[in-house]
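Standup notes
- HV: blocked on the assembly model, inputs below
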Amino acid sequence: MGGAELGQIFVNAVLLSGILALVALGFSLVWGIMNIVNLAHGSFIVLGAYITFFLHELLGVDPFLSIPVAMVALFTLGWGIQRGLINQVIRAPLLATFLLTFGLEILIVNLINYFFKADVRSVTTAYSGTGFTLGSVRVPYIRLGALGISLVLVALLAWYLRATRVGRAIRATGMDIDAARLTGVKVATIYAATFAIGAGMAGAAGSLLSMIVPFDPTLGGGYTQRAFAICVLGGLGNVANVVIGAAIFAFVDVFVGARLPSLSRAVTFAILVLLLILRPQGVAGKRV
Amino acid sequence: MKRTAPVALLAFALVLGAFPALAEDTILFGAAVSLTGKTAKEGEYTRDGYNFAVDTLNAQGGINVGGKKYKLAVKYYDDESKSESTAQLIEKLINEDKVTFILGPYGSAPSGTAAPICEKYKIPMIEANGSAESIFSKGYKYTFAVLSPAKLYLKGLIDLVMSKDKSVKTVAVLGENEPFSKEVASGAADYAREKGLQVVYQELYPTGTQDVSALLTNIKGKNPDIVLGAGHLQDSLLIVKQAKDLGVSPKAMGFSVGPSSPEFRENLKSNADYIFGATQWTEALKYNGDDPWKTPKGYATAFRAKHPKYGDIAYQVAESSAAVIAFSRAIEKAGSLDPAKVRDAIAALDIMTFYGQIKFDSRGINTFKPMAIEQLQPDGRKYTVFPSSVAEKDALYPMPAWDKRK
């Protein structure tokens, strides 16, 4: 591996880490706080991608500007879904939440398929594919922008959970739902907020992905898997863990892909299994 | 009251399901096609192609079997783009719907799972959308494909570039790790080597990949003259996008699947310019066949009259229609509806159609029809540029580097 190639691969991996961190962020939050493995997470990402796509295609809105729209729309949807559906199974066994979110995923994907067809879409702007060169390393603007936005959202969420009343209530509920309730936290509202924030983050991830990869209604499933793997790699319970998990995932994927692309996924998941044996709480997670 | 509703519904469904089999002088074909899921679009093309041919033949009075006229009909199931369910549905078509002729599903993987079922029941299948030779290497006697096999997909593109430029030396091939694309990739690499080119890169990426930057970075370091991609539409789009991201600018770039679909330009806009794509069929080709439409142009005009929504007609539509034509010709020739006799007639078939020659080698593959090459050009249109005898326009070569374009 020559120096130029190594540099490029390194940059590729860093850029990929950012977007993957955002993909997993909401998933990790919902899992960590509500103990729900949200299998419908991927479909929220797809919805975000379609919102950006249609705003760009029909109204000519710059894809980066549509990110807040996607976030608000998904936040609202997430709130509604939590109050209407997830709330019914909140203390039910894990299997019930699995089934519910799994069904939700299928429902949303098929509705998208029905309304928007299975056509492959992508958001292509005048600056798509353009970038600058650092030495011999190419840095595409869109991916750099995506990295920046991911990091900003990760930092914002970390700050929000640490410094605001609602944020602290979210964390308290995650630690001990009964104790939180006793101290006057409205758990139902906090859960709705958590789920809505998770969905909003997924919406932002979808917006960014729509500029980076061609997508269709089935895009999300693979990203739910990735989010799951990232959460297991990094460990739950902390926003920083998501970034670490995403970085591990991206670096393995890109570096193995550089030499043995047909094995990249197998190696990534082999590492995942190995890690689960050696460090079940994740690389950065704390032992419970 | 509560009880009767489901029962009534069930009865209604049964009646509906049984309906096509009731008409006595109708030949019922069965097909399990992906109408939802990953290849829903291509499945729709397949169904539209089958239906169009069936409707056209019916409008001409149907087909003549041993002096009696029969109408044609197709019973469809949706395999949801899952090749496991294709096999079950084919079994259901044969056992429950009593279908004796099968039209193939969309894609190599489902065609591969359908073939052994047809073999088991000795029911002939003509498929139009599965060109992996792995389907045909198992000695099945009841499966036939009207389309050119996978390994020929990118051959024409290598020939085209070599005819344009005597100085080309190096080729990079990247393919999706699934049966059809693997064969396209290895077929292209083998042919390039045979022609004296050096294959500097040959790797497979996993199905459903979302990032090919690692492969492209490696390819960029090797600076090949030609980059060939063997995957599906989404992969081809991703490769072009990331090739631009990373500044990978070969002299020619082409794909087995993707560029022939209208979605290719819709997704990439002007970044689609200069890209080559392999295609089984285009309406610019100059075949003159013995079928209701005779020529590719004739087919396209008639099809668009019925389906005004279609702009470009995807080759999947045409080859699906061609499968129906091949089947009906074979049934007529057999003069019988006996599956074994029809199977023999298919094996002996040699006809010229709007889709090109249809003739099967001993394995059941149509190795007699060449692949065409299309290029997306900067005027926003797509032209058939190879074989040169039927080319609409000269190929634009070399492809300008990404940063040298306006």
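- HV (later): unblocked. Chain A is about 75% helix and 5% strand. The first strand of chain A starts at residue 131 and ends at 134.
- Next: hand off to the docking folks.
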